[in-house]
Amino acid sequence: xxxxxxxxxxxxxxxxxxxxxxxxxxxxxxxxxxxxxxxxxxxxxxxxxxxxxxxxxxxxxxxxxxxxxxxxxxxxxxxxxxxxxxxxxxxxxxxxxxxxxxxxxxxxxxxxxxxxxxxxxxxxxxxxxxxxxxxxxxxxxxxxxxxxxxxxxxxxxxxxxxxxxxxxxxxxxxxxxxxxxxxxxxxxxxxxxxxxxxxxxxxxxxxxxxxxxxxxxxxxxxxxxxxxxxxxxxxxxxxxxxxxxxxxxxxxxxxxxxxxxxxxxxxxxxxxxxxxxxxxxxxxxxxxxxxxxxxxxxxxxxxxxxxxxxxxxx
Length: 314
Fold this sequence. Notes:
The chain is an alpha/beta fold. It has helices at 11-22, 39-46, 67-70, 94-112, 148-167, 189-198, 218-230, 249-260, 284-290, 298-313; strands at residues 2-6, 26-30, 55-58, 76-79, 119-125, 171-176, 179-180, 202-206, 212-213, 216-217, 236-240, 247-248, 265-269.
């Protein structure tokens, strides 16, 4: 099998690539190493497989590639590449999000319609739901994203569906719920919090810390991607969440303190526009149609991330 992984040096993309190589896939990884965060972290992400005989890395933006040529003989597309960050997506920067998240997805789908791929798996986000009291969130909920980032991910979902409906591109969209774990991006909350505790620095919380999330370990995200690719299902959208528990942010920091053996120097600030109060995933559709069930419990996953970051920062 031959797979294309976009964003292959990123948090999820590198973990997925590593798993696919273990499953004896040939993997073409595309990543443009933008300056959103320190590229040495991405280099570390791929260090274990950069020289693997079945891996090829292309350091370019997908908007700058001959995608029809790239997709020759490719069986699966795992489209993980995106400009990340809810809080950074406002104002003039939205042009970056529309170019990378919307145009990049459309160009990849346009090339896919003329290829013989078996599946196009698109990485979406729970941010498409916006701020809702209707919990747990179901795929049939009304979608009202409250950040430009969420708008860009929803646009990608809609593009996937229309290319499936009009051109029979075998797409599936996976709505990820707050992914954490080893290799987590340095702009994401858990990475920031754990680093701050390890280095005895101030830990800033936007809001009162009573917001809650359904956290999903990266290994379960990877599992869902592979199940989606290998399934016979097309044209559908699935929530991909964690072990079913909704964890309050303050409680997660309490657990970090316990795991690290230090107290956090907490500072509470005003809520940032685009953040939502609660998320909770109803994953019954993914269980029924993809046989998806998460394996990594929250406490285990957080302990693993703490150990990973200790190696970076202690």
